Automatic annotation (TrEMBL):
<keyword id="KW-0732">Signal</keyword>
<protein>
    <submittedName>
        <fullName>DUF4097 domain-containing protein</fullName>
    </submittedName>
</protein>
<dbReference type="Pfam" id="PF13349">
    <property type="entry name" value="DUF4097"/>
</dbReference>
<feature type="signal peptide">
    <location>
        <begin position="1"/>
        <end position="19"/>
    </location>
</feature>
<dbReference type="InterPro" id="IPR025164">
    <property type="entry name" value="Toastrack_DUF4097"/>
</dbReference>
<feature type="domain" description="DUF4097">
    <location>
        <begin position="131"/>
        <end position="344"/>
    </location>
</feature>
Length: 346
């Protein structure tokens, strides 16, 4: 049976004082629920953040409300906020079957900065829970969950901790910080940096305006930025990475590697190789350290090319180009620098 818990006149006095609300110490509204029955969380708000934390034995929804206009936060009383909330917003916290709904939306009425509120949700659930989360003006945080997770925000950051499953998240104006996640990870931002640590599986990370910092990743990794530098360490598997405006620094790479930049230098240290090593820059040099190989095909070009210990090499060696192979040429080593030197050390 569906139970709706709407905003009531006396809730404010029961759950918080004005001082507590301004300090963020107490929620405007709380509602408990049973964690064993809830398998899906659907949360949506127009101007606040959303947090879902799993692994709890008892479930709880906390609702936080404050003026969006910072100048009004100390001027508006509890009664003022309650009056604006009831007149201009619809707030719902409900359960139906195994689904929990937490939703805050504006009513179709005229409003101004004086009636703009930030309504945020903090939700504590069990572990095996899938989510569908949306906010147009706040951050999203997920922790301790297993299952499919879909979440997006137009104006906040994404934080993911200890989550497994199909993880799909997007922000149009914030950074991404993800760690201890597994299986299938697809995260994107149009205006922030990405930090990823200790991930396993199929990993796709994309930003249009920030740097990439990657560490301890395993699986198939695609990480791209249109406007920042790339730093990666401890990557095992396939790494495909590119930037249109920064340098690329790679350490402890074990597996296939395809990295490129249109505006910086590439430094790569490989501890293991598989089928190919492809590196390209349009505005800098390339320096590569890799394990010794007796079975590789080389295609190296730059303003000047230096390569060590080729051994039984069959091909041509020139000042700005090295092309040929050792053995049957199983490993493809393709390194190009349009306006810089290429140095390959084995």
């Amino acid at each position: 049976m569906k139970k709706n818990f709407l905003v009531l006149l006396l809730l404010l006095g029961a759950f918080c004082s004005n001082a507590q609300r301004n300090s963020g110490a107490a929620p405007y509204l709380t509602k408990p629920f049973g964690t064993t029955s809830i398998k899906e969380v659907r949360a949506e708000t127009a101007g606040g953040s959303i947090s879902v934390e799993g692994g709890k034995t008892s479930g709880l929804v906390e609702v936080y409300v404050e003026p969006s206009n910072g100048g009004l936060r100390k001027k508006m009383s509890d009664q003022d906020i309650k009056s604006v909330l009831e007149q201009y917003y619809d707030l719902e916290v409900s359960t139906s079957g195994n689904v929990l709904v937490a939703k805050a939306s504006r009513k179709d009425r005229n409003w101004s900065e004086k009636t703009a509120l930030s309504i945020s949700f903090k939700i504590y659930t069990g572990t095996d829970v899938r989510t569908d989360l949306k906010t147009s003006g706040g951050s999203i945080r997920l922790q301790g969950l297993k299952g499919d997770q879909f979440f997006k925000t137009s104006g906040g950051s994404l934080l993911v901790r200890d989550v497994s499953g199909k993880i799909t998240g997007k922000t149009s104006g914030g950074s991404i910080d993800v760690s201890d996640a597994r299986e299938e990870i697809d995260l994107a931002t149009s205006g922030g940096s990405i930090k990823a640590d200790h991930l396993t599986g199929r990993i796709r990370l994309k930003t249009s305006g920030g740097s990439l910092t990657l560490s301890d990743l395993s699986g198939n990794v695609e990480a791209r930025t249109s406007g920042g530098s790339i730093t990666a360490s401890g990557i095992k598997g396939d790494l495909f990475t590119s930037t249109s405006g920064g340098s690329v620094t790679l350490k402890g790479i074990d597996g296939n590697l395809d990295a490129s930049t249109s505006g910086g230098r590439i430094r790569a240290e490989l501890v293991g190789t598989k089928d190919f090593v492809k590196l390209h820059t349009s505005a800098g040099g390339v320096n590569v350290d890799m394990p010794r190989t007796d079975n590789a095909q080389f295609n190296l070009s730059g303003s000047k090319v230096n390569v060590s210990q080729l051994g039984n090499f069959n091909g041509s060696i020139e000042k700005n180009r090295v092309k040929g192979k050792i053995g049957s040429g199983k490993l493809l080593v393709e390194v190009t620098a349009s306006s810089g030197n290429v140095d390959v050390h084995m």
